[in-house]
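step=encode ok
step=design start
structure_in=
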């Protein structure tokens, strides 16, 4: 009986891992990555960490997804259109849990995202 429970637990674990991998793979196929460039930081804001923690941005037809490998608080996010008009501006916390910005209703156009972390500025362009 103990052997039966062990096999059943192993089978359920395999099914769970397989479904998780399948779900992640499906999500990654529908998004595109925004290449984020870093503007030079001031000497006061120079990154002194041994490992730099840079934000990540991806998008699909109606959503911009922002995240970071570790939790970063008080991050300023600004989204502009090609004319320089600000479409979104907020102070958020970026973390491995994705922060969503809804792009529904903006139609097909070019965007620039700017992410301010301490004294560093990350920016990238993308189009819908």
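sequence_out=
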């Amino acid at each position: 009986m103990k052997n039966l429970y062990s096999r059943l637990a192993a089978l359920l674990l395999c099914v769970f891992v397989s479904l998780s991998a399948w779900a992640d793979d499906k999500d990654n196929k529908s998004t595109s990555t925004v290449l984020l460039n870093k503007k030079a930081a001031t000497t006061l804001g120079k990154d002194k960490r041994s490992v730099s923690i840079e934000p990540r941005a991806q998008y699909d037809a109606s959503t911009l997804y922002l995240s970071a490998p570790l939790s970063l608080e008080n991050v300023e996010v600004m989204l502009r259109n090609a004319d320089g008009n600000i479409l979104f501006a907020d102070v958020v916390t970026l973390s491995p849990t994705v922060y969503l910005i809804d792009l529904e209703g903006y139609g097909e156009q070019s965007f620039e995202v700017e992410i301010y972390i301490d004294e560093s500025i990350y920016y990238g362009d993308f189009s819908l």
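step=design ok
step=annotate ok -> The chain has two domains: 1-30, 31-127.
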